[in-house]
Here is the input.
Amino acid sequence: MGKLKVKVYLDNGVWFAYPVSDAEKAREHASAIIATGYRHNDGEGEFEHYPPHRIFKVKIVGGVVPTDYPDTKGGT
Here is the structure.
């Protein structure tokens, strides 16, 4: 499995991504972001908080996240 990342898409087209250690952590982070919003810290002292209504999408990328409930996707 590759290195998992949580990728957060905002309503203005900007996205942020950061690595997590395993699939369970990725699920926990995604759930918390959806519930409480996203907190961005650039490491140079800038801190921003984006409330939940600004979150467009949260994805876990870079590897497989196992599930007992696989679904299908479709469109027209």
In short: The helical segments are 23-36.
